[in-house]
Amino acid sequence: QVQLVQSGAEVKKPGASVKVSCKASGYTFTAYYIHWVRQAPGQGLEWMGWINPNSGGANYAQTFEGRVTMTRDTSISTAYIELSSLRSGDTAVYYCARGMGMLAESFDYWGQGSLVTVSS
Amino acid sequence: QSALTQPASVSGSPGQSITISCTGTSSDVGDYNYVSWYQQHPGKAPKLMIYEVTNRPSGVSNRFSGSKSGNTASLTISGLQAEDEAHYYCSSYTSSSTLVVLFGGGTKLTVL
Predict the structure, then answer these.
(1) What is the 3-state secondary structure (H, E, C) of chain B?
(2) What is the pLDDT along chain A (120 residues), one digit of tens a residue?
């Protein structure tokens, strides 16, 4: 069965960086894009970007350009998101999700989420 | 870029039908048949309910259906059940240079 398992919760200070992992299983990792979506406490969903695990190419929402890096390690079927220069507004649950559909624009499987708390 | 517009809340009684709207622009909902709907229960990850406007993933009840007219997409839930109470989010592919996927602000469905 398809599973996306994410790394655990993190607490970071403002200005620091955080790296969250997303380990895929149950399907061919390189065949589907991985998207990252975040959700601040009590708020809606915000799309951050995607990575093509096959090529390593990535596309980021402009809101995060310059602060976000998405990478992958195909040998262990794991995708990563790193967010730098953290501020309190980055406190959120970060989800990875598998892209499907004609443009990989729908997300059929989601990780369990990783809570990132930014606090001094 | 602004989020897609959804009503903050809707409600209905068990057995009834409700519809949640999702309004975008000609750069997203109006120009592409790539609208999805997600259900999210408290503390859980979202679940895909509808993709490409009208398609249901395997395992999703046929009580859930999607449609689109112009710049507005809709999710209809028929035969409301208590377990349908959740937040619902729409999303759309967008041709905006700043984004690829745009989400709606979410709608809280209350089953009375």
Answers:
(1) CCCEECCCEEEECCCCCEEEEEECCCCCCCCCCCEEEEEECCCCCCEEEEECCCECCCCCCCCEEEEEECCEEEEEECCCCHHHCEEEEEEEECCCCCCCEEEECCEEEEEC
(2) 999 999 999 999 999 999 999 999 999 999 999 999 999 999 999 999 999 999 999 999 999 989 999 999 999 999 999 999 999 999 999 999 999 877 888 999 999 999 999 999
Distance CA(B66)–CA(B96), nearest Å, equals 24
Residue keyed to tokens 């009684």:
B13
Tell whether B58 lies on the interface with A, counting CB pairs under 8 A.
Answer: no
* A105 at B interface, C-beta within 8 A: yes
| A113: contact with B, CB 8 A cutoff | yes
In chain A, which residues have their Cβ closer than 8 Å to the Cβ of B98?
A: 61-63
Could you tell me how far CA A22 lies from the centroid of its own chain?
A: 7
Chain B contact set for A107 (CB, 8 A):
36, 38, 46, 48
**Is-contact A116 A18, C-beta < 8 A?**
yes
The beta-carbon neighbor of B100 closest among A59, A102, A107 is: A59
